[in-house]
Batch of 4 targets.
Target 1
Amino acid sequence: MLMYGFDIGGTKIEIAIFDSNINILDSWRVPTPTNDYSAFVSTVLEMVKQADEKFSSQGSVGIGLPGVIDRDGRVTTVNIPCLCGKQLLEDLERKLNRKVGIVNDVRAFALSEAITRKNHESETVLGVVLGTGVAAGLCINGTIHLGKSAVAGEIGHSCIHANLQQKYQFPIKQCNCGLSGCYEKYLSGSGLLFVSQHLGFDYADTHEIVTDLNLGNSNAKTVINCYLDCLGQFLAQQVLAFDPDVIILGGGLSNIEYLYQELPNYVEEYLFGDLKSPHILAPSFGDSSGVRGAALAGRIETH
Ligand SMILES: [Zn+2]
């Protein structure tokens, strides 16, 4: 059976068609209708119809999008305002006359990374996305752990450890989730830039920091080492909570190769006894993880 995966963001909707061995057969994208719910639903339905016709199939449908999707399929997202409070899952299932899987995009990333090319799915995998925001997905034996309120993985909104705040004299930053001191404010892309400014450097963006780091510049190294100290503490807390076999990083900051060399040492600084850091790996599927994970979520829902 074919699988259709949707990666839906604030600017575009991408569909990808996969065969049963998770090989991508085709993909295309259209702009996202962000302010008109019926136009949004029609766009998704039309893309499914096109895929059905093109492949003479009735594929499973899985959707990944940013935001919180509760257990009833109700969506809360800032990127696509027209979806807020809508029963998207129910509406799509009724109109498509088939089961649909809807999953948060970071959980989709984690699922994609947890299910390998050979379809192995035995490990406990924590996928951590370091990008515009910071969030994670925990997959156990190929299944996403969502939790009672479907917020398991929103670890970017846990509070920065007192050790770090004291050590670097960080201000407690207000987060747009309503809480303050969230790790996301220090570990996201803009968090890295904040760390740089806090240490007294005037990098204009994260790209400049990474370029300088690769040139061996000591200022950039100071910034990244502080960032790694915070990330190491953050991941050590996840190790103590979930003890994953492997941590897979995603998002823009996962492209910094230096992270992978140094991070295990920083994690172990914050683990007791002789506990070792799990393997911390770069993503295997890169930019296609969003559609891939969504397609896999749709397959799970259909079976
Ligand atoms: Zn927050």
Target 2
Amino acid sequence: MRECIVIGKANVGKTLFAINFADYLKVTRLNIEFATPSGESYRRVLSVPLALQELISDQPHHTLGLQRIEIQMPGVKGRKYFALVDTSGLTEGIHGETLIRRAMAQTLAKVRDAHVILHLIDASRSGQVGAIEALGEVDWQVAQFGAMRTGYAILANKMDLKEAQNGLVQIRREFPGHVIFPVSALLKTGFEEVKQFVWRHL
Ligand SMILES: Nc1nc2c(ncn2[C@@H]2O[C@H](COP(=O)(O)OP(=O)(O)OP(=O)(O)O)[C@@H](O)[C@H]2O)c(=O)[nH]1
Ligand SMILES: [Mg+2]
């Protein structure tokens, strides 16, 4: 099955985006396959409100491992089946905790094979502290990798927060030539453009 992977640094909103995007694509019961960095895997079926309650946190590295949601995407010309894969937050350099290092390796292995890569960046943070401070080396590396492929887009997230407007300007300046969609994972804005992009590249 074709895969669309959601990656980015910790706390940028990957899990909220994945759940709300699935909801936007009319998936009401999320059939999620969890794959932990230590090699176990299991499945859970969660309603959207329960998934939001359990899987999102304001603490970084809440997601440890891969969370794969199978989706039938409705479009003008029928449906497309794909897996939306939420991942652990990327870190700068080598993280001190073994589990987080393993989770990061697991994420990077998945990126290689994905058909679509949605790279989330917290635009509100770039708007507050400046792009150079908010974006890590890891964001540039991901963008460089993405530049070599089709199906790669940057999602400037948290556009509902006021600092994000300035952040978006900075992200556009730092990543010229890339496809960039401003979104709010919280309010589900910008999702139609992302849906069309995913549809085209699956
Ligand atoms: N205002 C606002 N808050 C958001 C948005 N997206 C995510 N958040 C908040 O940001 C925090 C982190 O969200 P998550 O979805 O758990 O972030 P993540 O990237 O999955 O984090 P890790 O799993 O730890 O890597 C939570 O407090 C969310 O409510 C958004 O679009 N707007
Ligand atoms: Mg998460």
Target 3
Amino acid sequence: MNELLLTDDERDRAGARLLALLDGYERGLPKAEILPEPDRAKLAGLLATPMPEQGVGVDALFDRWEDTILPSSTTVAHPRFLAYVLGPPNGIAPYAEAVAAAINQNCNFWQLSPAASVVERSVLEWLASVVGFPSTAKGILTGGGSLATLQALATALHDRVPDFHATGLQRDAAPLVVYTSVEAHRSVDKAAAILGIGLDNVRHIATDGEHRMDVHRLRAAIEQDRRDGLRPWCVVATCGTVSTGSVDPLDAIADLCEDQDLWLHVDGAYGALFLLSEGMRELMGGCARADSITLDPHKLLYAPLEAGCLLVRDGAKLRDAYAFDSSYLTVAEDPLMTDYMDYGPQLSRSFKAFKVWSALQAFGVDAFRKANERTLALARHLAEGIEATEGLTLLAPVTLTAVCFAVDGLPDHGPLLQELAAENIALLGPVVVQGKRGIRACVTNHRTSTADIDLILDRLRRQAG
Ligand SMILES: Cc1ncc(COP(=O)(O)O)c(C=O)c1O
């Protein structure tokens, strides 16, 4: 008897309970509270109760999930969950995750995960084609956009700093400088701080009237730093800023980076996968000129957390940055397979590509394209409703799906945000746009419908009236 396995009967029972749980969850979503009040007593009870010496068994475990875990969990899959850039998982996600757990492939070197190695490669090659990268590109799936940017900047350090692996940043050399905009995501600062660049060496370039990096100021800052004896090294442009969804002028920035010999990383965690639609090429086609790019399948491909992605145009540079010899990992080279331990910092790694690949197989690329186009249209619909309402003001142009607005004369939007959540109208988020406080709805949700947006608009009209 193995106490860590289920008996045949228990497996039947767990399967039935799981199906019932998933079915009940799905059917309950329209009426679910978006932000349920956590049951603090029960959650505190979790902490106060020692781990059982003897297991409670399948049924009691499912009871606990249903009684304690689910009711105190935010309903991210609700159609009016429009806070942050966080979408609900796609429909095949729970099943793909269950299978991935069962086969537990270790995506470090290919003998431990041959099919997984090829599946990840196929996802990465497809993502590279969406971005418009050449066939030299290589990448890796990551724990999210923040990690992809961290791994990208480490790659850029390795590429641009002589002997980086041997001496790191400890050589007696002038500080390296990284440039990004005031609208960039905090993950850029975080990466610079973690990698030892130092926040003092991150330039936050001012933006234009549409919240895009001002390329003239970028050039001026680079030139000033060169005059000061510093080492301009890397520019991080954003394709879809987190607050307003603005897209930096990628082509002009790429021209400048070429001219100044700087590594160009594009943070496309929020926006770059809108490139699935041909219509977005004009706005964000410059992504194809980056040295590296961050994408986030757990946003616009609606993969369940976590699934980020780093792509590097010249894949050899990614491998150079991360490949280390290790005698105990004896691996035979194979042209079909990739050893992902040589493309990122992790050794043991989960099979993240499975859920991304499975959803693309199950629903097809066009389904994701349509979902993204629907969210863009819904964001425009919301913005038009706001513009047409006296007492509501848009705080920024709506480029993608982030809609930032304020209720005129309302000094603090916090209580309104709380009321909207308490009335189950919607979960929206706070935003500050060039010093103006307001609300941000990010329609990055494939479940949202026009009726949902109209319900929100009606409530906002009452507030403004
Ligand atoms: C522009 C941008 N960059 C980076 C991130 C961070 O991505 P993640 O949460 O996957 O680490 C986000 C998240 O919303 C984002 O919008």
Target 4
Amino acid sequence: MSGDDRPAIIRALREGSSFLVLLHELPDGDSVGAALAMVLVLERMGKRVMAVGVDRIPRPYRFLPRADKAVVSGDLPLSAGLAVESWDTSIMLDCADPERAGAAWPLARKARTLINIDHHVTNIGYGDLNLVDAHASATAELVYALARDLGIEIDRDLANCLFVGIMTDTGSFRYSNASAHTFRIGAELVEAGASPEELAARIWESRPVSSLRLLARALTTLGLSDDGRMAWLTVDDAALADAGAEEQEVEGFVNYPRSLEGVEVAMLFRPMADGRTRVALRSKGRADVSRVARSLGGGGHPRAAGCILPPGPDRALDRVLAAAWREVSS
Ligand SMILES: [Mn+2]
């Protein structure tokens, strides 16, 4: 589903006075980059604006401008001047469905106008105004286009946020979603002051040692289907505790099974304390993992998707492998 209420969104951004900008749960580089870029754009327009999410911004992204001002929704003193009625517009970014914002979603919903800006093919257009473009490499690419339409000059701060969103969602401009258009935007952002070398070093090469300890442990769980077309890792709570790692350090691990020759679908299983299992899916071939995720109650992109499985009689692993197998053999 797609929707393009761009003119109405431009009008709403110009006419609104206070804005709530939403990150999704366990925010990735695109969620953070797009949200902080939106904050900078709105500030430049003289608006009151606050970024909010259920989780803290992960450490690798905290150097970005305004990252220190983002609020964790659980910390919001709703009775102390931050009453939800005081925000006239809320902007959901990079959330295929409202639940992606977790407990911050009710906050967003109470604003007079809800704007939904996203690039997931599974987005159902839940906003009052929707800008959903599955051809965009990243939500940050859509924020870039809005900034342009609004006549906002792209300075270094804004360029850094937007570049991080695009760089992380395209695997450093490598994945199938990195189009010629994406590279053109990348070039403009570099001209505006974004440094690919510095941003890559900060995000990909500033890991805490716990992250490599966790990876070492995760790699011992490698599973491979008999035909070698599906591979997966599992990261459980014990692995996290033993490595002294935080949840966010699991991000990107699914790329290791994906990197194997012959693998078409890679998966990462993250059993959670409440019995549910979070699953990340990546495709390297023709397989459309957004279909696999959707059949299991999740969503995403053809090459990168995810779902959360409720506890059930069958192992999460078996259910997901069966669904993934249907996709690779179709
Ligand atoms: Mn994204």
